[in-house]
Every structure is written in structure tokens, then in C-alpha cells.
């Protein structure tokens, strides 16, 4: 499938072309660089919860997830105990999956521990490749890469869970480590990290800025 040009004249992939929530997420956030611990911990957690579900489901529940998980502040979530687990399992506004809840709490503790070795952001961004895909159709977009496999293994060595290579590839797409916007999309090359033809922009590190 190729791009769809909306009423605003902007080209988007089919998944972001109709649902207003997904369109806004695509236009403003997906693929923009995230380099802070809280932002990355949140996205890592939500990608894990998304496994087996649609991203639209997770996105609609995102405000509830933020409330339930203390704004995804790693120090706060790391202090969650059995009572918190029971509270989360009773919260119909989020995804009530014990394994994913336990993994998120464990990942918060792993995130705190990782600060002694540079931190979560440094680890994730260390797997930025030299070039990024240049897909023309959704069929051209990879779902895993050598870098996502290596990131998965590295996180598991640091006691993270629910961080398989496919999930980590989705994370890398979402936070700008790679750019898999379709060629011709109005978002292609807009992050400041990558050029439209798949090369690193300048030194590969965009200035911190809010999405347009």
C-alpha cells in the first residue's frame, strides 16, 4: 500500500490517514527524537503493552496508563509493590495483563539501575544505525533489524523484560532512532535526525525540539 493524500494535501500511510487520533500521533509525535529517560521508559512500556493489540488501543488508553503508572517516572514505578500490582489488575482503563504489569515494574527498576552505566537513553541511542530504510510501500518497511536484535539482547542483559527484537524495532521507529516514514510522506526526514534519503543529519543527533 502506498501513501494517501488527505484533504489537507498531506501524504500519510494508510494507518495514519483516517483515524484522527492516529493521524495526530503520526503528524506530531511518531518518529520524533526522544532522548529523556521518562519519555523512553514510557514508550518502551507502551510498546510492551501493545504486543498482541492494536496501537490505536494503546494510544486511546495512554492517559490512563500515565495516571496508573505515576507518569512513567522510573523511580516511582520502581517502588510499586504487590498492592500496586493488584490496583493495576483492577484498573479497567488500562491493559490488565499481569506479565506486562510485572515487566513494567521490573523495567523501571532496571532503568534506575542502568543510570550507573550511562542510562536508558544512552543505551537505546547507541544502537542508531549508519543509515535508515527508505521504504516506498508498507511492504518495504522492516519489522526487525540487526540493531533491534542487538538492542533487545542488551536490554535483556540489564534485566529488562518484554523487549523482543520486533518490539524494540517498533520502539526505535517511534522515538526517531530510525526513520521508516514512507518516501513521499510529509513527515519523511522531518525529525532532524535523518535526511529524506536515509542518511544521518549532520552528526546524527537532532537538536531537542517539539514536533511541528
From TrEMBL:
This is DNA-3-methyladenine glycosylase I. InterPro entries: Adenine_glyco, DNA-3mA_glycosylase, DNA_glycosylase. It comes from Agrococcus citreus. Coiled coil: none annotated.
Amino acid at each position: 500500500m502506498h501513501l494517501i493524500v488527505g484533504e489537507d494535501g498531506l501524504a500519510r500511510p494508510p494507518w495514519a490517514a483516517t483515524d484522527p487520533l492516529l493521524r495526530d500521533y503520526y503528524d506530531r509525535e511518531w518518529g520524533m527524537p526522544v532522548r529523556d529517560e521518562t519519555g523512553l521508559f514510557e514508550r518502551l512500556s507502551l510498546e510492551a503493552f501493545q504486543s498482541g493489540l492494536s496501537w490505536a488501543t494503546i494510544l486511546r488508553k495512554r492517559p490512563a496508563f500515565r495516571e496508573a503508572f505515576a507518569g512513567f517516572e522510573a523511580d516511582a514505578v520502581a517502588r510499586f509493590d504487590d498492592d500496586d500490582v493488584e490496583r493495576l489488575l483492577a484498573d479497567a482503563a488500562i491493559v490488565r495483563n499481569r506479565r506486562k504489569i510485572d515487566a513494567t515494574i521490573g523495567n523501571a527498576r532496571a532503568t534506575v539501575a542502568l543510570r550507573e552505566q550511562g542510562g536508558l537513553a544512552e543505551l537505546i541511542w547507541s544502537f542508531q544505525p549508519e543509515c535508515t530504510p527508505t521504504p516506498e510501500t508498507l511492504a518495504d518497511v522492516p519489522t526487525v533489524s540487526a540493531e533491534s536484535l542487538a538492542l533487545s539482547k542488551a536490554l535483556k542483559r540489564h534485566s529488562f523484560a518484554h523487549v523482543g527484537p520486533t518490539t524494540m524495532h517498533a520502539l526505535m521507529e517511534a522515538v526517531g532512532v530510525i526513520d521508516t516514514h514512507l518516501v513521499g510522506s510529509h513527515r519523511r526526514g522531518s525529525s532532524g535526525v535523518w535526511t529524506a534519503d536515509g542518511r544521518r543529519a549532520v552528526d546524527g543527533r537532532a537538536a531537542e525540539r517539539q514536533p511541528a
